[in-house]
Amino acid sequence: MSQAPPPQRPAPVSLRTAFWYWLKLGFISFGGPAGQIAMMHSELVEKRRWISEQRFLHALNYCMLLPGPEATQLAVYIGWLLHRTPGAIVAGVLFVLPSLLILIALSWIYMAFGSVPAVAAVLYGIKPAVVAIVLAAAWRIGSRTLRNAALAGIAVASFVAIAVLHLPFPAIVLGAALLGLVGGKFWPRYFQIGGQHPERKTSYGPAIIDDDTPTPAHARFSWAGLVRVALAGAALGLAPWLLLAGLYGPRQVLAQMGWFFTKAALLTFGGAYAVLPYVYQGAVDHFQWLSGPQMIDGLALGESTPGPLIMIVAFVGFVGAWGQAAPGAVLGLAGAAGAAVAAFFTFLPSFVFILAGGPLVEASRDNIRMTAPLTAISAAVVGVIVSLALFFGEHVFRLETPAPRWDLAAVAIGAAACVALLRFKVGTIKLLLACALAGLVLSYST
């Protein structure tokens, strides 16, 4: 019996073929970062063999070191390796564009018809599920990050800092980074970065970018390339902001959003859940673009759409621009402009990080002095996410009546959602649909 010949290396993929793949992924990338990364692994490593297992994990570990949505950055990174800067732009834009358009449509429905009983009933069921999803995210990140008492202590300290002392999120990130810098120097074994898989070597056959494929010329580090891309990225961010500030004034809502979401993008160590407290502090408490309950509704919509969860910033931008639109303005267009501004300034830094800093970070990613501060920040993120879940729970599970009391139905939905996520590993979309149905049933049976 003759043995089957080994699989051949796939032919180089064209940018046109990659375009259609990234577009499809943008419409089906449900399940948060874990689900999106799993989809890319299944398609690009196992089936199409555009990139090998080891190169894929190498890229993933690199993206996890950076602020910003890691799944989006992974798509940008792979597109960049395959087709240089045009491939990075195509991959990143198509990964987020469907989500942006869907959220603009849902945000308009929410603002125009959110008081309709059926819509309110659906949101009533989804909100407890959102609390459960945030708690499950804290559990997942914590189980991966808090590998010793030192990191667990940083997580507890960050929880106290934001929930009890009400310190701003940037101060917590800076404090954790300083702890990691000191800890990495004197106690390096406590701050070794996780997520590495050096022992894992699975082969699905030769890949276009294989383990032994030399680093493409455009991905090799050079100071000239770093400076060139960094300046181009700064110009791409500064020029639109100056245009908005010049047209409407620096204190107008769109200009404020551009600057605010640029800062938010630089603080998203640990993913979208980590930056939500900062977005809440700025959008709700400081600028008052939307209310606390609206923020929770936006997170519910973000959880039920494809694309990166950080796209909740589009909802914040839509609602904020809608609420502060000039008299006589078309509210839907104002909201869409706010969503587009929020998304642009949130995701632009991710492209710059990959195109400018990718080769440098990849060359030094095993250096403990570089990774220890990021490990400490990841630990602090766990405490911040738990505080976020408690904050949301306070709004979802307590009824604002003359004598505040627990909403037992909402508590029951939230508890069931926690069990479904943590014990039975139910998918996010199935969970949200079930909780939405529970909200409808409860609302129309009382």
Brief summary:
By secondary structure, the chain is an all-alpha fold. Helix content is 72%, strand content 1%.
Number of domains: 1
> In percent terms, what proportion of residues is strand?
under 5%
Overall pLDDT score:
84
Largest sheet, strands/sense/barrel: 2 strands, antiparallel
**How many helices?**
16
Taking the alpha carbons of the first and last residues, their distance comes to 70 Å
Helix content: over 70%
Give the overall form.
Answer: globular
Order of helices and strands: HHHHHHHHHHHHHHEEHH
Major sheet: order of its strands?
1-2
Helix-strand category: mainly alpha
Low-pLDDT residue spans: 194-201
Alpha-carbon Rg, integer: 22 Å
Number of strands: 2
InterPro entries: Chr_Tranpt_l_chain, Chromate_transpt
Transmembrane segments: 20-39, 88-110, 116-139, 151-182, 226-248, 260-280, 300-322, 329-354, 374-393, 405-422
Membrane topology: Multi-pass membrane protein
Main location: membrane
Account of the protein in words:
This protein is an all-alpha fold and 446 residues long. It has one domain (15-200, 222-445). The protein is 72% helix and 1% strand. It has 16 helices and 2 strands. The chain has helices at 15-28, 32-47, 53-65, 70-113, 117-145, 149-163, 169-186, 223-248, 253-265, 272-286, 292-303, 312-323, 331-363, 368-397, 408-422, 428-445; strands spanning 398-399, 405-406. The protein has a two-stranded antiparallel ribbon with strand order 1-2. The protein is globular and about 70 Å long.
